Amino acid sequence: MSVYQVNKLLYMTDNDPAFRKRMKEEPEAALSDFRLTAEERDALTTGSVGKLYQMGVHTFLLNHLSRYELFGVNRDNYLDKIREGMDYDPRFEEGKMPMQYFIKQEQ
Amino acid sequence: MAKLVLVAGVPHPPRLVYEMAQSPGKMKGEGLMKQVREQVEKAAPDVIFEVDSDHFVNFFYNLLPSFCIGMAEEAQGPQETWCPMPRYVIKGHVPMAKALFQYGVHDKFDLSAAHELRPDHSLMVPLHFLNPGMELPVIPIYTNGFASPLPLATRCFSLGRMLRRFIDAWDGDERVAIIASGCFAMDVGGPLRGWTDNQWVDTISKQLVKGQYQSLARHATEDRINHAGNNSGELLNWITVTGAVGKTKPLFLENDEGSGYAVWKFE
Question: What is the distance between the alpha carbons of residues B263 and B144, in angstroms, rounded to a whole number?
């Protein structure tokens, strides 16, 4: 497993503006910089947040997919996506905390 | 001899900064943050130690210390472009940070040190409220609150005790404040987003109010922390600062949205 590489490319998306630009404009090419398994690459390009979560990608880093709206993931569908493949948990129904605010555009 | 004059704990929600700017007077956290700020102003510290957990901005899995002392002369933050708050430059206190590093290592804490910092919102939101104009020097003390294995809470408590011994022994006349940054129980970006583990928040709050700090440290295992949501390791920062307060009980502790706002005073 090279889940480190998935964590790394998500970390770079948040912290490296040039790489973030590439992830937005040519995501497939940007991914080719990393040693990903076919499964990891597929999970990323299909926006399969649940799969990536099960693989052990850190949730703080996974959240950048919604923050930067990559591979079809956004704030509205992120929670449903990360729960895909999980057993039902009653805590899913108890959420009352408001969501965070993001500034979408680059500064 | 330096003097510890205040210990405080506050959360660091960027939305608090944003919403206070948009529509002041609406959020409970606004009043609580002001309450803490008043006490900081009264205590009139000369330097702030801020115990914080980086959110993969300053550190990443390529190099991720359990404990790290910030030694930068200055640093800019928050670094995250998505974070809806002003950008600041904070200044460090290099001689005191270096001395703490040496004191800690000689006291058998295998600390790390960072001479360059990229502060994230978790370091900057409390400073936005509690260090107006970023006038006071800040010494960040990072704990690894998020990347398993977390340092033991009992070890964090001991780290705080060491920090107190250092402050009491420091050959300077600084008035010192220590601030813990973080929530008690929260999930951000995980599958439990929005849920609050109120049972855990109550347990933490009761133990803090009663001054049962070591008991809290023993209860705060990584499993218990994880059960409360992916952001809940920030409790380690609170536990670290309770190591520095000794037997003093908090002047006040208030809860809001899975977090606490508290102040301890020492004169």
Answer: 23
Q: Convert the pLDDT of each residue in B104-114 to its tens digit.
A: 999 999 999 99
Q: Which of A3, A7, A14 to mutate to test the interface with B (most CBs of B within 10 A)?
A: A14
Which CATH number applies to A3-84: 3.40.50.620, 1.10.357.10, 1.10.3210.10, 1.10.700.10? 1.10.700.10
> What residues 148-177 of chain B have any CB closer than 8 A to a CB of chain A?
none
Q: B81 at the A interface (CB within 8 A)?
A: yes
Q: Measuring CA to CA, which residue among B118, B195, B14 is closest to residue A16?
A: B118
pTM of the model as a whole: 0.96
Yes or no, beta carbons of B258 and A104 under 8 Å apart: no
> What is the domain count for chain B?
1
Cβ <8 Å between A58 and B57: no
- Please write the tens of the pLDDT for every residue from B150-202: 999 999 999 999 999 999 999 999 999 999 999 999 999 999 988 999 999 99
Report how far residue B7's alpha carbon sits from residue B241's, in angstroms, rounded to the nearest whole number: 7
Predicted confidence at residue A102, as pLDDT, reads: 56
Domain boundaries, chain A: 3-84
Structure ipTM: 0.94
Range of the domain at B140: 3-265
